[in-house]
Amino acid sequence: MKVNIDIDDQYEETSITIQTQKWTDELEEIIRYINNKKQARLFGVDADQTIILNPKEIDYIYAEKRKIFAALHNQRIEIKMKLYEIEELLLPQHFMRFSKSVIGNLNNIQCFELSFNGNLCVYFHSGNKEYITRKYATSIKKKLATGGDFYDR
């Protein structure tokens, strides 16, 4: 991929032009990243307090009994959003779908191993673990092999 940047006082606002032969997943990620350039913030509820959550500290987010929780180290904090809304918000922060009810932070993965049923068991640096279903395992392994998102290189 070739990148050209032209900085000049004649331009009133920033404009981006992409020239390509076909639409790719990489272009989809670029557009998503540009549209979500602001830092994502999540608000969790613990007891009667509202807590600002840093996405980098979250290992995974999961749905259980019609509620959404963020797993951070040894804490479980409820989030008052839908899982698909959180997934969309955190996509630029290296989160991917692990299963129908879990999205995880790829940057916090320490290692993973294959389970007997074809799922992957993921271990996080914090000691937490979660499972990736076969449906999502290939795309996650591909993303991990390429070093995460392209704009971090």
Automatic annotation (TrEMBL):
Transmembrane segment boundaries: none
UniProt key word Transcription: yes
InterPro entries in the record: LytR-like, LytTR_DNA-bd_dom
UniProt xrefs under SMART domains: LytTR
Domain of life: Bacteria
One Pfam family per UniProt: LytTR
Keywords: Cytoplasm, DNA-binding, Transcription, Transcription regulation
HTH LytTR-type domain residues: 48-146
GO molecular function, one term: DNA binding
Name recorded for this polypeptide: Putative HTH-type transcriptional regulator
